[in-house]
Amino acid sequence: MESTENILSRIEFLRKKMTDVALQKGFTDNESVYISQELDRLLNLYEKVKQEK
């Protein structure tokens, strides 16, 4: 299982990347949507890992 610190680091990276991509290409661009979905997945994983501790 991944550590919460590792997951949080990836979440912060994706938040910044998603913002940058969305501002350049638009919020509905495929890349923006993909990053948003990956961010959602990581946020769900983070909550799951927190509950298991």
From TrEMBL:
SUPFAM superfamilies: BAS1536-like. It comes from the Bacteria. Pfam families: SpoOE-like. GO terms for molecular function: protein dimerization activity. GO terms for biological process: regulation of sporulation. InterPro entries: HLH_DNA-bd_sf, Spo0E-like, Spo0E-like_sf. This is Stage 0 sporulation regulatory protein. It comes from Oceanobacillus polygoni. The lineage of its organism: Bacteria, Bacillati, Bacillota, Bacilli, Bacillales.
